[in-house]
Amino acid sequence: MKEDKEIISAWLDDAIEYSEAESLETEQGGQIFSTAARYQMIGDALRGKVTDASMIDISASVREAISLEPESVPLTRPARSSRRQFHGKAQSHGKAKALFDFGSWLRPVGGLAVAATVAMLMVVTLTDQQTGTDSAIVANIAQQPVQAMPVKNAMPVYAKPGIAIPAVNLNSYVTEHSEYAAQGTVQGIVPYARSVSYGAEENPSLKNTVKDNQTVNNPGK
Amino acid sequence: MKLGVTAFLTFAILSYVPAYAGNVSDIVSGMSAADKRSNYEGIFVLRKSDKLMTMHVVHGVDERGVWESMESLNGEARKIVRHNDEVISIYPSHKLVTVSKMGDKPGLHPILPENLHKLGNYYTIHQLGDDRIAGRETSVLNVKPIDAYRYGYKYWLDNETQVLLKCDLLNENGEIVEQMMYTAFHDHAAVPPTAFNIPELEGYTRQILNKSRGKQANIGWRSTNMPQGFMLTHSTIRSGDDNKSLHLMYSDGLASVSVFIEPDENSTHRLSGASRVGALNVYGKQMNGAQITVMGEVPEATVATIAESMVRTQ
Fold first, then answer.
1. A74 touches chain B (CB under 8 A)
2. Second CATH level (architecture) for the domain B214-312
3. Partner-chain contact A180 B256, CB within 8 Å
4. Is the pTM of this model over 0.95?
């Protein structure tokens, strides 16, 4: 089973050819492609590439899939649909295995994105009184053992040469940085354009939205 | 001999590129003012690493302030409508609309154009000549950093309106890491009243992202080695995702750097070392149970220096 997942991992990341994955599946009598499709669906669900209606059904499947997976299964994060080509760079399974840790990536993100228990991104003003409380929360953090993922080593294999794409999800930070950077600069539309260029499908803070059925007022004329 | 000296002097005078030593404020002030007085419409492209986006923009000013509508023309449909510091983002494919407001309180430090006089301490600016962008005459300005802690810029400013029609962001090696350029631009006497209307959003999910500027007071963290010129302009506490995190924004007037600090426990942003997304450099480290993430359109050395110098003050 573990070996199957290594093959899936390599195939989803274009690390092996489709024909190679197919022959391995035939040899082992496994269910590589159906399992890969399931992981692809999980990835799409986590990235919000499903409608609200289908999300309801899929979330249960995702939770079930997550709960069934052994915690230490080494597997890459699902490849993007557009990248799921049947022609990849020849790379060893061992490398694909070493680059990713499915358990550490999917569990926290899935817990947030699928359960959607916390939806609202709310920034409060730092008043003198609030600072004493809120900054203390940040400052008085308990000492925790750090298990950091070296990002350069965790670079997905589909990254373009010279461009490191963080394996951790920083998009909510990037969006917030862009919006704040737009304030007080002279560069006109550029910072706002940067903000627009980060899509909702990549923004975890948007995926965790709670539907409130409010009508949006038209701020125009 | 006399002819030779004359020729040399003529050549020297013609080839001399004047620095805008005394006019930095005028130039940048003109760019900043263009945002608050111009009505225009256009299409521009934004290139970030290997991605190319095309957007339609309408910009207008009335008695209620500055309005701006920006819509992506390729890839996923997205539209934002900005009114002063309120930004409404519409994602049709997700049936989602978000509203964010930066707040009415002033920033921690004066930002442009109030602190224009300080820009000359960190950048030199030269006029490179004239060029034509989107069928309009422009002046090209080269903004070079004086140290290795910030990127350089090339600005193409419309001669008539001072609106920025093209912008190159240049890394420490002089390579372009981000480009924006209008392909069509029309200035208007007044923008049509319906330009900023938002379409019917029935059935859309609405998410409010309230944001307020805060005071610089007892934020609990500071940098012991902040590159010269970067000042704290905003500090906010953001909550969500089961965590509270601190967001500090530093700016030298052109470049901006964000510092996010959150409890390392349950952090979904766990990052160690340097990384890059387009023109954005990111550096993460863990310290005393906190995840520190620094990002900005600045060289890697800048985000790394700031991240490594963050210390708790309480």
1. no
2. 2-Layer Sandwich (3.30)
3. yes
4. no
The average pLDDT across A129-144 equals 30
Per the CB < 8 Å rule, is A118 touching B198?
Answer: no
Q: What is the ipTM of this complex?
A: 0.79
**Superfamily for domain range B18-196:** Lipoprotein localisation LolA/LolB/LppX (2.50.20.10)
Q: Cα separation of A43 and A166, whole Å?
A: 16
pLDDT band at A28 (very low <50, low <70, confident <90, very high): low
Q: In what helix (H) or strand (E) does residue B182 lie, and over which residues does it extend? A: strand B176-187
pLDDT in tens, B41-57: 999 999 887 788 899 99
Decide if B250 contacts B233 (C-beta within 8 A). Answer: yes
CB contact under 8 A, A124 and B239: yes
Within a domain: A137: no
Structure confidence at residue A109 as a pLDDT band (50, 70, 90): very low
d(CA A37, CA A33): 6
Q: Rounded CA gap, A220 and B193, in Å?
A: 8
Confirm or reject contact between A137 and chain B (CB < 8 A).
yes
Segment (H or E) for B6: helix B2-15
